[in-house]
TrEMBL record:
Lineage: Bacteria, Pseudomonadati, Pseudomonadota, Gammaproteobacteria, Enterobacterales
Protein name (database record): Fic family protein
Domain Fido: 108-246
C-alpha cells in the first residue's frame, strides 16, 4: 500500500491506516513479546539507561539498528540535531501526567502536545497552522507531511487510539502511537522529542526511568529514518518495530546476539 503522492521533487505524505498485528512477520511478533517481557521484568533508572546507551555508542554496536540500505545512504542522511535526551528526561520527571487525563478530550491532548514542544524548545511551539516539510535533500527534493486539512481529524484519531492502550499490547501500542505521531507531525518543531516522551508515557514508564531513545536514534542515523519512511510510504512496519525493540534491548543491556536484525 502506498501512502504518498509525488509532485515534482516533493513526496507528499497521505493519510495512512493503523496496522494490525497479523500484518507483521512472525519474528517481529516474537521480538515484541520478548521486549514486552523485558520491560515488565527489568527496572533501571534513567542514569543507568543513559550509561548503557553511551556504552553502545562507544562500542559502535550499530548493527542491530541498521537498515539493509544503511551502508548506501548513511552519509546522505541528516542525523537528528538532538543527540541527548536529558531535556526530555527532565520534562518527563517534572510533568509526569496521567495518560487518561491527557487523552480525555481533544483539547487536553493538544494542550499537552504544545506543552511538550514549548518546554523542550524553550519557546512557544503551537500545533502547526500550515503544511510542513523536511529539510531538502542534496537534489532539492523533500518530504511534505500530511496536509493541514487532515491534521485535526488525525490528532483526534490518535487520541482515540491512545485511549485503547492495553497491558496486553502496551509496547506495540506505544510504537504505533509514536510512528503515527511522527507521520502527523503536528508541531512546528520538536516532533521527535515529543514522540519519544509520549512513547514513554504510553508505556507507563516511571518518572525516574525515562528510556533515552534519542541517543540511539542519533547514533543509528539512517536505520531510524529509513525504517520510519518505510512505514510512512508503504505501510511496512516490521523494521520500525524492530528498531524500537532493539533499542530497548540495548538500553537494558541485552547482548547483540539476542536481537532480531532489521531487513
Amino acid at each position: 500500500m502506498e501512502n504518498y503522492a509525488i509532485q515534482g521533487k516533493v513526496i507528499k505524505l497521505l493519510r495512512m491506516d493503523y496496522p494490525k498485528v497479523n500484518h507483521f512477520h512472525t519474528d517481529t511478533r516474537l521480538l515484541l513479546d520478548r521486549t514486552q517481557v523485558l520491560i515488565h521484568n527489568t527496572s533501571f533508572e534513567y542514569k543507568q539507561l543513559l550509561e548503557n546507551a553511551n556504552q553502545v555508542i562507544e562500542d559502535k554496536r550499530i548493527q542491530p539498528l541498521q537498515h539493509r540500505l544503511s551502508a548506501y545512504v548513511d552519509l546522505d542522511i541528516f542525523p537528528s540535531e538532538n543527540s541527548t535526551s536529558q531535556n526530555e528526561a527532565i520534562f518527563y520527571h517534572q510533568f509526569y501526567p496521567t495518560l487518561s487525563d491527557i487523552v480525555n478530550n481533544n483539547l487536553s491532548f493538544i494542550q499537552f502536545i504544545e506543552k511538550i514542544g514549548s518546554e523542550i524548545t524553550r519557546r512557544s511551539i503551537p500545533v502547526r497552522k500550515a503544511n510542513i516539510r523536511t529539510v531538502p535533500d542534496k537534489d532539492g527534493s523533500y518530504t511534505e507531511f500530511i496536509d493541514i486539512s487532515l491534521l485535526s481529524e488525525s490528532l483526534s484519531n490518535l487520541r482515540e487510539y491512545a485511549k485503547g492502550n492495553s497491558d496486553d499490547n502496551k509496547l506495540l501500542h506505544a510504537i504505533i502511537f509514536a510512528v503515527m505521531f511522527m507521520h502527523i507531525h503536528p508541531l512546528q518543531d520538536g516532533n521527535g522529542r515529543a514522540a519519544r516522551i509520549l512513547f514513554n508515557l504510553m508505556l507507563q514508564i516511571k518518572p525516574l526511568s525515562y528510556l533515552p531513545l534519542t541517543e540511539l536514534c542519533h547514533f543509528a542515523r539512517s536505520g531510524y529514518v529509513l525504517s520510519l519512511r518505510e512505514a510512512f510510504l508503504f505501510s511496512e512496519w516490521d523494521n520500525i518495530i524492530k528498531f524500537y525493540c532493539n533499542c530497548i534491548h540495548l538500553l537494558y543491556g541485552s547482548a547483540t546476539s539476542e536481537l532480531t536484525s532489521m531487513q
